[in-house]
Amino acid sequence: MMFKKSLIAMAMGGTLAVSAQAGEVEVLHWWTSGGEARSIAVLKEMVEDAGHTWTDFAVAGGGGENAYTVLRSRAVSGNPPAAAQIKGLEIQEWGDLGFLASLDDVADENNWDSVLPSVVADVMKHDGDYVAAPVNVHRVNWMWANPAVFADAGVDIPTNLDELWAAAEELQAAGVTPIAHGGQPWQDATTFESIVLAVGGADFFNDVFVEMDQAALESDTMVEAFEEFRKVNDYIDRGAPGRDWNVATSMVIRGEAAMQFMGDWAKGEFTAANMTPGEDYICAPFPGTADAFTFNIDSLAMFKQRTAANAEAQLKMAELVLSPSFQETFNLNKGSIPARTDLDMGKFDDCALASMETFKSTAASGEGLVPSMAHGMSTTSTIQGAIYDTVTEFFNSDMSAEDGATRLARAVRAAQ
Amino acid sequence: MSVSRKKGIDYWLPKLVVSPTLVIALVFFYGFVLWTTFISFTNSSFLPSYDLVGFDQYVRLFMNPRWLNAMGNLVVFGVLFIGICMVVGLVMAILLDQNIRAEGAIRTIYLYPMALSFIVTGTVWKWLLNPTVGIERFVISMGWESFVFDWIIDPDMAIYTVVIAGVWQASGFVMAIFLAGLRGIDTSIIKAAQLDGANLFAVYTRIIIPSMRPVFFSAFIMLAHIAIKSFDLVIALTGGGPGNATDVPAIFMYQFSFQRGQLGIGAASAVIMLMTVLAILVPYLYSELRTPKNG
Question: Best residue in A393, A398, A403, A410 to probe B by mutation, most B CBs within 10 Å?
Answer without folding.
Answer: A393
